[in-house]
Amino acid sequence: MVKELIVKDKRALRRISYGYLWVYSNEVKDLKGFEEGELCYLTDSKGDFLATAYVNPHSLICARILSGKKIKPNIQFFENKLKKIIEYKRKIVDLKNSRIVFAEGDGLPGFILDFYGGKVLSAQFNTKGADNLKEEFLKAVEIVLGDYPVVIKNQSVFREKENLDVEVSTKGNVPDEVLIEENGIKMLIPLLKGQKTGYYFDQRENKKRFGEFAKGEVLDLFSYIGGFGLNAAQKAESVTFVDSSQTAIDYCKKNMELNGFESGEYIKMDAFKAIREFKKAKREFDLISIDPPAFTKSRKTLDRAIKGYANLNREVFSLVKKGGIVFTMSCSRLVDIQTFDRIVEKAIVSSGKKLRVIGRLYQAFDHTVLPFMKETEYLKGLILMRID
Q1: Residue 250 main-chain phi, psi, to 5 deg
Q2: Distance from CA of residue 287 to its chain's centroid?
Q3: Domains of the chain by range and CATH?
């Protein structure tokens, strides 16, 4: 018997009617008796059905919507959802190297699925509700896509908030690394030891644009396995990769060699420390990418994150040559586009350099955004040119 959860807040009811997929704990009547991850039917105060969701009574986001219909989230449900997702994703990206399921963006809160090289799948289940349904989901994936090995990278901070174990597991024979091709660049992806699901498809188009500006000396800060620098390496005189992870730096070198690029400099160092070292040495670059990890995932640390982004950008602006280009980005969902613009504006003023905005950056096509759910819009950036 599926329990009903009454949504009492008028604004929440309106948001749900628009397609918003979250309900907050102060917007419902009573969460007593619900288990973490339990399926429920959302209703209004009159008892009229709204949606099928799963519940976490101990979370601020107490319900996440799976469907606007009464459904059972079984294998058939996920099979139908995946077929619809794939139908539109195949029109915009190469499915074999893409994010196939982008959680709320694709109408499946808590579920992430990436496809690497048409050979290996990488999945995340970031909520208790998603974790409870992972077997049904993975079986549907096998039916729709085929029987591929799957690495389950359940390491996100969101799982910790849901009192779930942080772990990596595998289904089938998952290799340590897999070869993919993106923007004509070959890359080895560290599946088991890599960050997040293994790679960041969300910057695909931004990396291609970065390569179009390549010349002279290029700096790839927070490089991970080298995506931005690799896209610039064909035209640049030299590319300097900076990351605090030795695994990441090792893969930068591997991937440069794989593509026959010989102009790499590889620095294992905290990015802020590396910037200070570059400033001491009076080094400047023609093209710079700033792609840091999210500085905050909580409103409690938002102010500190804003200061961190401002300091980072101010310091980096002193490293760009006259006429040089900077790609600066933030993947912090809580730092929206308007806030990021203000951060960069202040950083430009405090740096004493003259820069102009010549373009904007956004998340890749396969990281779809729900128009009425801005939480699905997280990656933003600016392309700047130094003109003084």
Answers
A1: -60, -40
A2: 23
A3: 3-67 (2.30.130.10), 75-175 (3.30.750.80), 178-386 (3.40.50.150)
